[in-house]
Amino acid sequence: MIALAAALAVTASALVATVLVRRRVVVVTVSGTSMTPTLHPGEKLLVRRCGIAALKVGDIVVLEPPRVPVSPEVTVLAPLPARTRWQVKRVAALPGDPIPPPAREAAGTLRAVPDGTLIVLGDNDASNDSRLSGPYPADRILGVALRRPAGAPFPGPAIR
Q1: What angle do CA 125, 130, 132 make, to 5 degrees?
Q2: Residue 79: other Cβ atoms inside 10 A
Q3: pLDDT digits over 137-146, tens only?
Q4: What is the helix, strand, coil percentage profile of the chain, to 5?
Q5: Superfamily of domain 2-146
Q6: pTM confidence score
């Protein structure tokens, strides 16, 4: 009887731990080429859910593209799919930082990243990112990529 109770306690603990981890960590599969040569389609990323305060320039993030303009100067050029389509990008600038050269045209008259937004760029110059959409709203961030599930770290920033 004691062994059964102990086994149930261990199982319950494992279940609770799994639920708690899943609230904080997700696995995302890369599906496009915007982060090549750093990441390739089919690679899996371990992502820790977080907000903008936990990010630094050079981090790889998973976020939703903007749905509406974040300022009168910035507009979204392409329609978005009906269901959430996450993007994997590298943080190029955070609130208060100067707008990096690749995103200046899309940012309109903005010279610094507005509060509540960030500039993200794919490592591949052909990426659909802040070069086209300007600043991304921070409330669209899913989290920061920690590593590939196999444990391999990411190469350093490829920000130009």
Answers
A1: 80
A2: 6
A3: 999 999 999 8
A4: 20, 25, 50
A5: Umud Fragment, subunit A (2.10.109.10)
A6: 0.74
